[in-house]
Each structure stands twice: as structure tokens, then as C-alpha cells.
Amino acid sequence: MAVTDSAVVPVGAPGESQGAWDSGAAAAEGARAAHEGILRRQSARESAARTYARALPIVPVRARGLTIEGADGRRYLDCLSGAGTLALGHNHPVVLEAIRKVLDSGAPLQVLDLATPVKDAFTTELFRTLPPRFAERARVQFCGPAGTDAVEAAFKLVRAATGRTGMLAFTGAYHGMTAGALEASGGATDGRVARLPYPQDYRCPFGIGGGRGAELSARWTESLLDDPKSGVPLPAGMILEPVQGEGGVIPAPDAWMRRMREITEARSVPLIVDEVQTGVGRTGTFWAVEHSGITPDVMVLSKAIGGSLPLAVVVYRDELDVWQPGAHAGTFRGNQLAMAAGTATLAHVRENGLAERAATVGARMLTQLRSLATEFPCIGDVRGRGLMIGLELVDPEGAPSPTPDGPRPAAPELAAAVQRECLRRGLIVELGGRRSSVVRLLPPLTISDEQTSAVLDRLADAVKAVAQGDLLGRDGARATGGPR
To answer: What is the helix (H) or strand (E) element at residue 64, kind and residue range?
Structure first.
């Protein structure tokens, strides 16, 4: 099916016999019933902590590239991509071939941290993609299967290497769901982590934005570290995201990234860069640190490096490698299928210039979405880098703050309405940001020009439906309960 076709698979065609039509209708009804039954059982059996399943009531049964087909027969364009995991989209041929090769070879699938040819190939390809200055003196630690496990390992590493315990992190950060990672994330309520202001133009913590706002953020960091009465002793490390994803798709200015590197290096504070979501070409360079040219002390990697399968590593400069054997371990460090899929993904992105294509396609999407924002004032801001894009939805009638030309109040109900309207049109998008008011796009790097146009068209239609329809009550007055 072409991506510009209807999101609903037709169940009959002109000229078919009544019997064929009835048979097709019965099949469609059966598919819908199966779909609804699975959703009911999930709701009854699974934890209340489930997230995506609440906003995206679909039951995927087949997928290829950008497209997912549900159990009810509907097809969708997937701009969630497993929260950024699927750099090459669903079931890419090079990934499937790599997995089949390992399965057919009789190689062990679980080997703890033993060396294998599959692991050696993955490590070799990974180091080939890393920034050269970083790679030449790097070590790699295979962790548990998720990015949060790698964050925990990074914290343990710098604490062991420095003998210090505190950490520096940033407002709006997201580093995972385990205890230590949550301490460094924006929703923390307690912990050993000092919080610093992350620079952003639209909702600048200092109310000024731009280069001046980023400079104040850097000066605040210096003051906190150098003031003997700041209440923050010299930390074991600083962790930051080159683009905050869950925080609302906020790219860090390159000059500010360089300042953070200078500040931490001058004070012997290891700099940890979380590339779990930004890595493997997502932002328009293979690794997001390449935009600023900095060389961090530690990089935390997961999601796309496993080629759609669970894999996470910490890569760090050799001087930090002070661990004793077994100081950080885990049963599922040796996922051979994920390493094979990851090697294939890393190589395909590198050999086919997909990071550069992400930069080109992302720039086109940002341009068109900013044009859309001029038409609909409920879009307060459009931002992103490469194929990591966000639209912040605001109340167009709310009072701007902190200045008359400042941003209007976030509108999470409008963002949720846009997400629902996108799904009705066969487009899967994610929400993020401080109040879940940012519609996020994370399409695979393999998205075609035709698919890009289809995504933009469907998103524009969804925004228009919300802005011109769902904002109005039945009598034409502004609805007080949010979008229907």
C-alpha cells in the first residue's frame, strides 16, 4: 500500500459479488473483534504503569520500514520508531539477515561477557563510528539490556574513578527508570544530584533565550562548582543529553556544549553524554556530540545500537577504567542477536550516509512545520535536530509569560488531541515535554521523500482538525473542557 493511501485497508471493491463482499465484511468484523479482545485483556492483566498502550490503542501484527499493520487491518505510519530504537525502521532486510545468520550458524545466543566473533564484530564497528579522538583511548562496558542500566553503570564508574559521590544533571533531563537514573532525571524528588538549568530558547529559565540565556546557564554552573558555600561539593560527574528528548526535544547549543566540556575538564569532573536516543545518526551526525566537536569522558549508548533488540553499553576513556573484575556485571550482557543486529545497523547507517540524510530530511520537515505554525497559533514552537523533532502545543488565548512576547501556557490537552487525530489518520506520534505538551516525531532514518510528505500532510490535517474544530464547543463558543 502506498503511504498516501487511506489508513484503512479496504474490505471489498466495486464489481465484487455480494458473497465476496459479505465474506470480506465478515473477515473485517472478525479482525476488529480480535483486536478489541486483545486490548481488553491487556487492560485487565497488565500493570497500571503501562504508557504507550493507553494513548495508542493498536495491536501491531506486521511491520516493515515506516509502516505498521494492526490486528484490525488498519495501517499506520510509525513516527515513534520504538522510542527511537528503530534507526532503520521495522524489520529492515539487513537486520533480519544478520539475525538469521547467527541463528543458522549454531552460535550460542547467551554467553555472559565471553568473547565471540559476533561480539568482536560489533565492538569493531562501534569503535569505527565513534569520534576518532574518543575512540583511540576508549574502553567499552557491556551492561544490562536497557539504557537505564548503562546510565547506572556510568554513575558507578565515575564514582569509583573519582572517589566522589554527587552528580550534576539538568532540568528536564531523562536518563531512565531505575533508581539512580531517576535521581538524575527531571522528575526526581530526592537524591544525590544537583540540578542545573538546561538552556532553551522558547522557555528559557532566565527569560531571555538565545546565546545570552545559554551563557547564563554556563555561568550558573561555574558558580555552583566554585562557590565554597554553594552546598554542592565537587561531584563525581556531570550527565547531559545533547538533545533532551523526553524533556521536549530541546537541542543544546553547540557553544554551550563546548562550555560544559571546558568547565568540567578544568575541574576534573568527568562529563557523561547520554546518547541513548540521539545516537546512530538520529540528529544528523552519527553521534550528537559531533555537532559541537567535544570529546566527552563517557558516552552512554543503547536503543538503536541493538538494531531493534535490547543492548546497552558504556564507552569511556581508559583512565577511568579502575573497576575490579565483577565490579559491574549482569547476566544479559552478551545478547548475540542484538550485537549482530546492531553491527548491521551501525554499518548500514555509516555506509549509506543516513546521518547526513537525516539532517537533510529533518531540515525540510522543520521548515514545513514552522510554516504550519504561522497558520495555527496553537503551535507555540517547532524545534529539533535531524529526525528528532517536536511541536509544542500552547493555549493560543492564554497570557504570555514572563514577558508580553513570551511563550503562552503549555496545552497538554491540545497535544493529546493532536496525537489522537494523527492516529485516526494513520500516523503514530509520541508526546513529551514538561507537561506532555510536545508532539514528538522520531521517524526511521530510512524514511523516503514520499513518506515524509505523507507524514507532514497527516500531521497538518490533525493540527487543523484540533485547531479549527475541537477547540470549539457545539454552540461555537470556546470549549472549557479541552478537546473532545
So the answer is: strand 60-64
Looking at residue 84, its pLDDT comes to 94
Residue 126: strand, helix, or coil: helix
- Residue found by looking up cell 561555574 in the block: 222
C-alpha angle 235-201-288 in degrees, rounded to nearest 5: 60
User: What span, in angstroms and rounded, lies between the C-alpha atoms of 415 and 419?
Assistant: 6
Cβ pair 58, 74 in contact under 8 A: yes
Rounded to whole angstroms, the Cα distance separating 2 from 360 reads 23
**CA pseudo-torsion sign 228, 229, 230, 234:** positive
Instruction: Output the CA–CA distances (angstroms, integers) from residue 217 to 196, 197, 205, 214, 347, in the order listed.
Output: 8, 6, 9, 5, 37
| Contact status, residue 176 vs residue 151, Cβ threshold 8 Å | yes
pLDDT tens for 288-328 read 999 999 999 999 999 999 999 999 999 999 999 999 998 88
5 three-class SS: coil
CA distance 199 to 244: 10
Q: Cell 562529563 belongs to which residue?
A: 271
Name the grid cell of 463. Answer: 493540527
Please work out, in degrees rounded to the nearest 5, the angle formed at the alpha carbon of residue 34 by the alpha carbons of 32 and 35: 60
> What is residue 181's predicted lDDT score, i.e. its pLDDT?
82
Q: What are phi and psi of 19, to 5 degrees?
A: -65, -45
Q: Give the pairing of strands 75-78 and 427-428.
A: parallel
Task: Of 340, 296, 320, give the one whose Cα is nearest residue 153.
Answer: 320
Report whether 450 contacts 4 (CB < 8 A): yes
Residue located via cell numbers 583511548: 137
Q: Which residues of the chain have pLDDT under 70?
A: 1-23, 188-191, 470-484
What cell does 77 get?
505510519
Sign of CA dihedral 271, 277, 280, 285: negative
What is the spatial distance between Cα 76 and Cα 116, in angstroms, rounded to a whole number? 39
Q: Is 75 helix (H, G, I), strand (E, B) or coil?
A: strand
Q: What is the CA radius of gyration of the chain?
A: 24
**C-alpha span between 351 and 77 (Å, rounded):** 26
262-265: Cβ within 8 A, 24+ apart:
263/218, 263/221, 263/222, 263/225, 264/238, 264/297
HEC states along 295-315?
Answer: CCCEEEECHHHHCCCCCCEEE
What confidence tens digit (pLDDT) does each residue in 399-417 have?
998 888 889 999 999 999 9
pTM of the model: 0.90
CB count, 10 Å around CB of 57? 16
Q: Which residues, at least 6 apart from 39, have a Cβ–Cβ distance to it below 8 Å?
A: 57, 59
pLDDT at 179: 76
Q: Tell me how far apart the alpha carbons of residues 109 and 304 are, in angstroms, rounded to a whole number.
A: 20
